[in-house]
Amino acid sequence: MTTATTRHSDRRVSPVFLGIVAVMAVTGWATWTGFAEQPGIAVFLFVTAAWIVSLCLHEYAHARTALHSGDISIGAKGYLTLNPLKYTHALLSIVLPVLFVIMGGIGLPGGAVWIERSRIQGRWKHSLISAAGPLTNVLFAVVCTAPFWLDALDGVPADFRFALAFLALLQVTAALLNFLPVPGLDGYGVLEPWLSYKIRQQVEPLAPFGLLLVIAILWIPAVNSVFFDVIDTLLRGLGIDEISTYCGQNLFRFWTETDQFCGVGS
């Protein structure tokens, strides 16, 4: 088994990740109970910590799948520790996505871990490695939306419900963007093994700019409108309405004026 060559220390969960999980748990409890004097700050910390946790799990999914597919170098690179500081580019993988959440409320895909593809044989394995990350976001979205589509919201405080709705929005946008067949994103990584060598060679120079291209296109009002219409449709299918996501983002952005329509803190 490929995992046999991985040292135990290479798989030990990082204290940094555990610290982020602790922040998520404590602020989630504060949001649920109303313990926080400023509920917006608690929601901000809860959603941000949960978003970072999901980013770490996204990268871990890529790494773990690659390990089982034949890349035994993954463990030595620290990718199995869930430490966000160990990933290929901390700015692209963690900092930039978090900034986009704060600025625009969109789940921006991060940079992937560095995988030695030459060690891996088989097209399906390569495709699965690329798909593993965004599938983690899909799973995270399902967990966040479960109380909504299971109609299990009785007794769930409004602040916590709004926070979950906004967190689900981030996960759905991240999954959708990641699955776009654009060079540099995971969606293209799923398709790449099945393309001809000639096409791969022609597209390869575009990979470093793929994410920037997507961001630029999303700035076009018409495209942005269509994109979020699709997101809203997906969320409604999961039982979340626009009011919940709007109020979640409004509460998350505690430094702005609170919309009293949301009944935040009630």
Automatic annotation (TrEMBL):
Cofactor names: Zn(2+)
Highest rank taxon of the organism: Bacteria
Membrane topology: Multi-pass membrane protein
UniProt GO molecular function: peptidase activity
Parts of the chain that traverse the membrane: 16-35, 42-61, 90-115, 127-150, 162-185, 206-228
GO terms under biological process: proteolysis
Subcellular location per the Swiss-Prot or TrEMBL entry: Cell membrane
Keywords, comma-separated and alphabetical: Cell membrane, Hydrolase, Membrane, Metal-binding, Metalloprotease, Protease, Transmembrane, Transmembrane helix, Zinc
CDD domains: S2P-M50_like_1
Entry's family note: Belongs to the peptidase M50B family.
PANTHER family referenced in this protein's UniProt entry, alphabetically: ZINC METALLOPROTEASE MJ0611-RELATED (PTHR35864), ZINC METALLOPROTEASE YWHC-RELATED (PTHR35864:SF1)
Entry protein name: Site-2 protease family protein
Species: Streptomyces ureilyticus
